[in-house]
Write a structure and sequence with these properties.
The protein is α+β, with helices and mostly antiparallel strands and 329 residues long. The protein folds into two domains: 19-65 and 299-328, no CATH class; 76-135 and 178-286, no CATH class. It is 61% helix and 12% strand. The protein is built from twelve helices and eight strands. The protein has helices at residues 3-31, 35-44, 46-66, 88-94, 96-101, 113-120, 124-134, 137-141, 180-190, 211-250, 254-276, 299-328; strands spanning 71-79, 143-147, 152-155, 160-161, 166-167, 191-195, 202-208, 282-286. The strands form three sheets. Strands 6-7-1-8 form a four-stranded antiparallel sheet. A two-stranded antiparallel sheet has the order 2-3. The chain has a two-stranded antiparallel sheet with strand order 4-5. A hairpin with a 6-residue loop joins strand 6 (191-195) and strand 7 (202-208). Helix 7 (124-134) crosses helix 9. The longest helix has 40 residues, at 211-250. The protein is elongated. The two termini are 49 Å apart.
Length: 329
């Protein structure tokens, strides 16, 4: 085959391709959605889009004005010196040798009391004592809404009958009043703790329908948590002293008596330091004050988001119709 014949042979498929490409491109152009198609489709469905936007805006307005205002109080604390083991635990470490010699174990292993207390704030024992002490069971579990005009918390009568002072239940097999599990679950919902590792500051927040109760309860919680742990530690030290005095009366060895006297003296010092600590575990840096506005999402923002959602649904529906039309033609 000559050079000319080869060139003619190669030119044949190229001509075929030139003929087929426009046909293929033409088909694709029919199926592609152009800017003109989109503008025309949006214009044709503008009434539907606007109606959907208005409809969702109305629904959002109803939801925004029906939501119960929730207030968030905040307190900032920092671990006290005693919780970090700078005073009481130093005495405990000095007793290790004497206590071992006397056959006594005071469990002086260093522990982070702060972290224990932060978990303890959700414990059943502490919460039960806290609720009983401040008599807050009804406003905690049956709060309805805050009446700003008379500055009073309204109680949900479907949960608690204020006239008769009884809890309402529709099932006779269900307990007639809330138990500690209800209390614990409620506090897990409304009480949040965050800690800054860099600064050591601890922020505790509490949400409630009443701004007054939210701030008061938060301040009470820190005070009672300090007192609760102080009582636990002092009771433990007092038991140690009683035990040491009993052992002292049982031994006639002068050397052991000296050891027990030293242990009793040091435990007494430890008890004295525990009793004089006002902020036993946490020092308050910024106390909780009554919040001046609800923590809910602003009503206007809810309404705007609702309208935007409706418009987007309309636009998506328009694109769906346009795409379906293109695929079926």
């Amino acid at each position: 085959m000559t050079k000319r014949e080869c060139e003619e042979h190669k030119a044949i498929p190229q001509q075929d391709m030139m003929l087929t490409v426009p046909i293929y491109a033409s088909r694709n152009n029919d199926e592609l959605i152009t800017i003109t198609d989109i503008i025309f489709a949006l214009g044709s469905n503008k009434v539907l889009i606007v109606l959907l936007g208005c409809f969702f805006m109305v629904l959002s307005s109803i939801a925004a004005y029906m939501q119960t205002p929730i207030y968030k109080a905040e307190i900032i604390v920092i671990p006290s010196k005693s919780s970090q083991g700078n005073s009481i635990n130093n005495i405990s470490s000095q007793l290790g040798g004497l206590a071992s010699l006397a056959g006594v174990n005071f469990n002086n292993q260093a522990v982070d009391k702060t972290q224990i207390a932060l978990e303890q704030i959700y414990s059943k024992v502490f919460l039960q004592e806290f609720v009983n002490k401040h008599n807050i069971l009804v406003p905690l579990l049956a709060a309805a809404t805050w009446n700003e005009d008379i500055r009073q918390l309204e109680i949900d009568e479907t949960l608690y009958n204020t006239n008769e002072g009884i809890w309402i239940t529709n099932d006779s097999h269900i307990k007639t009043s809330p138990d500690i599990w209800d209390i614990q679950n409620k506090f897990k919902d409304i009480l949040k703790i965050s800690e800054s590792k860099a600064s050591g500051l601890i922020k505790v927040t509490l949400e409630h329908s009443s701004p007054v109760l939210a701030s008061n309860w938060l301040n009470y919680l820190i005070t009672d948590l300090n007192q609760f742990n102080q009582n636990v530690d002092t009771q433990s030290i007092e038991k140690n002293i009683i035990y040491l005095k009993e052992q002292l009366t049982k031994t006639e060895v002068v050397g052991m008596q000296t050891v027990f006297f030293s242990l009793i003296e040091e435990q007494t010092k430890k008890l004295m330091l525990a009793n004089i600590e006002s902020d036993y575990l946490f020092e308050v840096v910024d106390p909780a004050i009554e919040p001046n506005k609800p923590a809910n999402i602003p009503k206007l923002l809810i309404i705007i988001l609702g309208g935007f959602t409706g418009i987007m649904i309309g636009v998506i529906f328009t694109f769906y119709k346009l795409l379906k039309t293109k695929l079926t033609t």
